[in-house]
Amino acid sequence: MPDDLKARQLHLNGIIVGMAGVKKLNAREYEDTKVETLTIDAIKAELEFIDLQLKRRSG
């Protein structure tokens, strides 16, 4: 059975990497909006929470 937390972690990391790629492609035009900043911060917080849960499972 696949691990849901690890799958979610991979998915969220992919979103962050994808957003970074878009920023590089449009470096001159790209400017972070407040919504994007809040979204990125929320994703990072979720990733930290997932890491904590995975550590608790393994330890």
Give a verbal description of the structure:
The chain is an all-alpha fold and 59 residues long. It has one domain. The chain has 2 helices and no strands. It has helices at 4-25, 34-58. Helix 1 (4-25) runs antiparallel to helix 2. The protein is elongated.
Backbone CA Rg: 14 Å
Query: If you average the pLDDT, what whole number results?
Result: 84
User: In percent, how helical is the residue content?
Assistant: over 70%
Number of helices: 2
Assess the beta-strand content as a share of residues: under 5%
SSE class: mainly alpha
N-C termini distance = 20 Å
Sheet having the most strands: none
Strand tally: 0
Which shape, going by the Cα principal axes?
elongated
What count of domains describes the coordinates? 1
* Succession of helices and strands: HH
Low-confidence stretches: none
Describe the structure in brief.
Helices cover about 80% and strands about 0% of the residues.
Using brief descriptors, characterize the structure shown.
mainly alpha, 59 residues, single chain, 2 helices
Task: Give the arrangement of secondary structure elements.
Blueprint: H1 4-25, H2 34-58
